Amino acid sequence: MALLDKKSELLPLISESILVHEEQIEPDVEKVRDLIFNKERDDMAYGPEGSFYQRWFRNVSQGKTAVKSWGINNKIFSRQICWKKGSKFDLDNLFSRTVDTSRILPMALADFRIQWYYHPKHLEWIDGHKKPGMADPRALHQMMTLSLMLFPILVMRNMHDYGGADIPIITVNWTSSMLDRAFDHWVKASESEWSDEECQERRMQLQGEFMQEQICIPCFLRVDQHVRALLSDEEVGYVPRFIVFRREDNMIPGRALFSHPSYQPDGKFIDGFPTGCGAPTCTDRDCVVFDFSACRALAETSPMVRKDKLPWKTVRCNFWLCEIKEEEGATEPCTLVRCKKCKEVMYCGQQHQVQNKVYSENIISLPW
Fold first, then answer.
1. Residue 32, in any domain of the structure
2. Entry pTM
3. Domain of life of the organism in this record (predicted)?
4. Which residues contact 189 (CB under 8 A, 6 or more apart)?
5. Which of 6, 159, 221, 293 is the most buried (most CB within 10 A)?
6. Tens digit of each residue's pLDDT (9 = 90 or more) over 104-126
């Protein structure tokens, strides 16, 4: 493989990546999302307690097991996930607190697109499965893969009010050990303790190690270039809150690289999150689709990550169209008041609380 030129090494551009980009637009994602939710809710094979995912959502949102934490500026001690007791397992009834605005918003309104990235050889393999009368193998492959990872992606995406609508997924043919080493490299590089020369030396070292593996598609240098371009190149059009990595054949669990520590779900919150495919007929004890414990986060002030202009670490009125906010670390008296009904969100005044009363009524469930 030809080495990347010096300019690409220091200032990677998404246009120079060899990975092929395919976008799965919002309506296609919604179809998969709704299909999986309907199956999870209505399949009687799961029993009276519902699917593994239903049980997890219920556990973290209701009763004594509800997971709560302080939001920005320690204004409210509230749940990360809200699901009112007695309401059906539906996106309209599931709410998530955001890390950027401290709002609690319905998952049903958090649309997103999947930005798929493949090595050309992976697409050749997928396209090779096309048969007469068969649906587009790429679309089918994306639908099946998203179906498997839908719930962890929903949890991660719904932690964001702004900036979470584009989710890149990079397909690799790496082992778990290779992913571990790559993630360790990116985290260490984000801490700015290495010079440019040291970074390049360590990239080349990993490249050499990876090329000794039986399969290494794409090579480390190409994936490294692509990851850094996603995080830094303005031409990407967004700064990903996290990048998902998955193996082409799904033989190892997916995982995510978060672009900021606050984007990574807290251990207490995702403790007990189902790791398998969730199928009621699955008897494979080693079935693991996504592994939160293998995820990593880049350093808080990493120069690897381009800063965007989206709202960041503010407490905002929970009426979504309202711009009234309190910045992180603000010391002056706050104009926002706690919701009198659910007591888990803030409003700028009674008018917006009344206009948003449906949210509060769906969130509230005392005792949880």
1. yes
2. 0.93
3. Eukaryota
4. 199, 202, 304
5. 159
6. 999 999 999 999 999 999 999 99
